[in-house]
Amino acid sequence: MRGGLQSRENALPDRSESTRTGNVRPIGFLKPLHSSPPTGRGIQQHFVKEQIMDLLKAINERKSQRAFKPDPVPKERIEEILKLAIHAPSAINLQPWEFIVVTGEEKERLSRRLTKAYKEKQIACSPGNVKPLPKTYAKRGAKTLDLMKPFFEEMSLDVNQYINEGSCNFYGAPVAILLCLDDSFPNARLVDIGIALGYLVLAAHEFGLATCPIGLILAYEDEIKDLLNIPENKNVAIGVALGYPDPEVPVNRFKSQRDDFNKFVRWIE
Fold first, then answer.
1. Is residue 268 domain-resident?
2. Over 80: is that where the pLDDT of 120 sits?
3. The last residue of a domain, from among 36, 61, 86
4. Maximum alpha-carbon separation in the chain
5. Residue 42 confidence (pLDDT)
6. Is residue 252 domain-resident?
């Protein structure tokens, strides 16, 4: 059993994240055992219990951030995050996701191109609904915007302008990740993309990095494909801003609320 545990540990990425101040942040999912761990079967039970607790903590803590520091993210760290993301389940194990990682000057070019397209076409963030939304969903969206407004007032910025132009700029993040799906797949496989996205944002959180999924850029997919030479048979499903959050920007204090649990669940017994 001890040999099995050692193999598991060797397969995991680095357990710490160095911050700009030189502090070391333990990685939640990958927290090492105590200096005097239990022996035998107790080792495995203790390790599993800690992992479960850390996973629950990450799920509860993680939130979208809308202001990033310009500090670059090491390529090795991005690779570690994506290697965890592709552990997501998918139908028949098709693993239909494809990731395009854009950094450096290419990311800046992408941001400029998207911002220009937004200013010309004025396609703004919206739910993308094809018919009027039921009041339940519309109220949730309106409530979220109302809760965000005080943070934007503190910043003396218009919420709509910040969200729309910020989305096109990936909120200043140094990394833009595009999740793509081959057009041979039906829309049902977007579920698999969504699961991989969930893995990605949680993994990033555990490495001390922030994320913000961005859907507005899909309105300008032609611009993205042209600039990045993405083949016509690949559809951009969602974008993600990735980087170190800027704690000095007020909007990063905001965390969206969740409706009552019972409104989402129907029991049939």
1. no
2. yes
3. 61
4. 65
5. 67
6. yes
Nearest to 237 by CA among 262, 217, 255: 217
Please check whether residue 206 lies inside any domain of the structure.
yes
Written as six digits, the tokens of 135 are 């009041």
Helix and strand element counts for the chain (H, E): 8, 6
The answer on 92 and 52 residing in a single domain is no
Structure tokens at 74: 């090491």
Whether 56 and 84 map to the same domain: the answer is: no
Domain count within the chain: 2
C-alpha to C-alpha distance for 92 and 189, rounded to whole angstroms: 11
What is the extent of the structural domain holding 35? 2-61
Note the pLDDT of residue 67: 96
Tokens standing for residue 205: 């959180």
Backbone angles phi, psi at 71, to 5 degrees: -55, 130
What pLDDT is attached to residue 53? 72
212 and 85 part of one domain: yes
Q: What is the residue type of 99? A: F
Residue 68 lies in a domain: no
At 205-249, the pLDDT tens digits run: 999 999 999 999 999 999 999 999 999 999 999 999 999 999 999
Split at pLDDT 50, 70, 90, the class of 13 is very low
Residue 181 CB partners (closer than 8 Å, separation 6+): 96, 97, 98, 189, 190, 193, 234, 235, 237
Q: Three-state DSSP class for 239?
A: strand
Q: In terms of domains, do 86 and 123 share one?
A: yes
Q: What is the pLDDT of residues 68-116, one digit of tens each?
A: 999 999 999 999 999 999 999 999 999 999 999 999 999 999 999 999 9
What's the pTM value of the predicted model, to 2 decimals? 0.81
